[in-house]
Design brief:
626 residues; alpha+beta; five-stranded mixed sheet; 15 helices; 25% strand; elongated
Length: 626
């Protein structure tokens, strides 16, 4: 079977590679440039695609995203197995270094094809006279709102909107021919300018914190007793409730053969679901399916927590992160809350995980707009700092290293120096957050909660497997229906039993012991004859026993075609000898004819066929003596 699985994976990889080659041949032109990347060689065409020389993968739209700046980052996405900070920074530098070869190859291809990069034209800029009029009307009031540290998110937005409405009314009187979007954009331009200058020139943030300061953080665990694990993490006005649910390994997410071939992951027993309801931002709306934002934030928080989850944990883990209130960095709050909930549930994670978002306010060089003349990095950014800023740099990890990173950049390029400073500033903040979290719960609980699930392995000998499973799986289905447990086979003699509660496990153990208990130890007994069949009679050895077949060959020394030839009747009690169970299929071995004769050869012939259950030496001795 394992050879067939290997063959199937090989076919899947071959199919993916052929698809890559087909796509590449359809969307590329004749002119191509090769880039040597060490072990692999990248081929870039003058079309829309590039590929590795061996056809292993195809890259879409290679049209020089890095052509403006050679050593500046446009986007960073990373997941790591708790990598040290210095190693992570080195990996970023190596990646930037190797991208230079690809960028130069793209530029060479563009020169050969005589293609120039299109520069997107800004669709709309507010008229200068309108912006200056707004500055005279509202600059002092906007400045007063942004420097009033008593405001929270809602009151600040209400104060700005009040100034906006008053200013727009005066603008419409001054410029009656102006379009509505020109009026709105004029006010937005001034608000953004005042907000950014406040950080750049005065080193002041709208909530009164220092540039490297964190918001007030509070943590709590074990909020809801019925849950397997729960935690509430609040940072400023961002509040996330995380809960942990355990289920059997059978509930893990199974991947298709193509995903398995590409990623090497067959099943996924840890998942994090991120939920962002409308009331988190003081709104009403439809509670529907997940959108791309929720999927992305959940994937980032899951990447942050996955490296600390034990590989051999006996349950499937589902963490649900529900954002109750949001004012920036809810994905990193989900990573913090998820770590607390996992420890509350008793999951032996290797270390606690925390995350933080770093923002950027920059000033461009007037002569070279693509270059940064001055900048400020902000720790633990608010929603407004993300909206009016230039970067959202999310980093998560443990005290030891980094597990996940995602950087959304809104400017033409992020210098490598800024990236290194952001990593360092995020690492300092991450350790401070972990210190606060450790005061709430420092390590995973020694044992899981009393109402948590239980999993045990039950060893069923091959001789008793038929009794355990039952005809057509009847016993297993009855066991699962009556107790609520889930049973899966581990190997030939081992079954895994998952129970949602310890009480259900006790019921399942009692049920299993009843159907698999040892038969009474006796050499002969009286049976109740139930019905006739052509090949024998159905009999019961004891009242609650499942009827078994006593074959015609074991009824009498004479050969008979039907049990009625011996004058037996339904309901009649007959005496038989019990030889134990067959070790191969677990069926009872019964005989009536051995009690009608003293011929020892009959007993010897039965013993030679291994009719004695589980190889009991006592039973063998008794049978031989008889």
């Amino acid at each position: 079977m394992k050879y067939l699985l290997r063959l199937g994976r090989s076919f899947a990889r071959l199919h993916v590679r052929l698809c890559h080659q087909s796509v590449y041949s359809r969307h590329t032109n004749a002119c191509r440039v090769g880039v040597d990347l060490g072990d692999k060689k990248l081929e870039i065409s003058s079309g829309r695609f590039a590929r590795f020389a061996d056809g292993a993968a195809v890259v879409q739209d290679v049209s020089a995203q890095h052509s403006r700046t050679y050593t500046e980052a446009l986007m960073i996405e990373a997941s790591a197995e708790n990598v040290l900070q210095q190693d992570f920074c080195h990996a970023v530098k190596v990646g930037v270094k190797h991208t230079q070869q690809i960028i130069h190859a793209i530029q060479q291809l563009a020169r050969e094809q005589k293609v120039t990069k299109r520069t997107p034209v800004k669709m709309f800029s507010p008229p200068t006279d309108m912006v200056e009029h707004v500055r005279r009307l509202a600059s002092e009031r906007i400045y007063a709102v942004f420097t009033d540290y008593t405001h929270d998110k809602i009151s600040r937005d209400e104060a700005i909107n009040k100034v906006r409405l008053e200013t727009e009314e005066e603008l419409k009187e001054k410029f009656p021919q102006a379009e509505p979007f020109e009026v709105i954009e004029s006010f937005n331009t001034l608000s953004k300018e005042i907000f950014r200058n406040l950080v750049l020139n005065e080193y002041r943030r709208c909530d009164g914190r220092e540039l490297t300061g964190l918001r007030n953080i509070s943590c709590d665990v074990d909020l809801f007793k019925p849950l397997h694990g729960s935690a509430l993490f609040q940072r400023g006005q961002t509040q996330v409730l995380c809960s942990v649910t355990f289920d059997s390994l059978e509930s893990s997410i199974k991947t298709d053969i193509i995903t398995t071939a590409l990623s090497g992951i067959k099943d996924k027993n840890f998942m994090l679901h991120y939920e962002f309801p409308p009331y988190a931002t003081n709104e009403t709306g439809k509670m529907g399916g997940l959108n791309r934002r929720e999927l992305g934030h959940g994937a980032l928080a899951e990447k942050a927590l996955r490296p600390v989850i034990p590989k051999d944990f006996p349950f499937t883990i589902r963490v649900t992160a529900e954002v109750l209130e949001s004012n920036g960095s809810s994905s990193m709050a989900s990573a913090c809350g998820g770590s607390l909930a996992l420890m509350d549930a008793g999951v032996p994670i290797s270390s606690a995980v925390a995350g933080v978002a770093i923002g950027l306010i920059s000033k461009a060089n007037p002569e070279k707009p693509a270059e940064i003349e001055d900048y400020r990095l902000l720790t633990d950014i608010l929603g407004i700092e993300d909206y009016l800023g230039d970067m959202d740099f999310k980093l998560a990890g443990t005290n030891k290293g980094i597990t996940a990173l995602q950087a959304d950049v809104k400017i033409p390029g992020l210098p490598l120096k800024v990236v290194m400073e952001a990593i360092q500033q995020a690492t300092v903040a991450k350790r401070e957050i972990l210190g606060i979290m450790n005061k709430c719960i420092a390590k995973p609980r020694e044992s899981r909660k009393e109402n948590g699930p239980v999993v045990e392995n039950v060893r069923v000998p091959v001789s008793r497997r038929a009794r355990f499973v039952g005809p057509g799986g009847y016993n297993l289905r009855r066991l699962q229906a009556q107790t609520g447990v889930t049973i899966s086979q581990v190997d030939e003699e081992t079954f895994s039993v998952f129970a949602p509660t310890p009480g259900a496990m006790n019921e399942a153990q009692h049920f299993i012991s009843e159907i698999c208990k040892d038969d009474p130890s006796y050499s002969s007994s009286v049976l109740l004859l139930l019905c006739f069949r052509d090949i024998g009679v159905m009999v019961k050895l004891y009242p609650n026993m499942t009827p078994v077949l006593l074959h015609n060959s074991q009824l009498d020394h004479k050969r008979i075609k039907h049990p009625s030839a011996l004058g037996l009747e339904v309901g009649q009690e007959i005496q038989v000898k019990y030889f134990g169970r067959d070790p191969t299929d677990g069926r009872m071995r019964l005989s009536r004819k051995v009690l009608q004769s003293t011929a020892a050869s009959v007993v010897k012939r039965l013993n030679d066929k291994q009719s004695i259950s589980m190889g009991s030496s006592d039973m063998q001795t008794t049978s031989t003596d008889s």
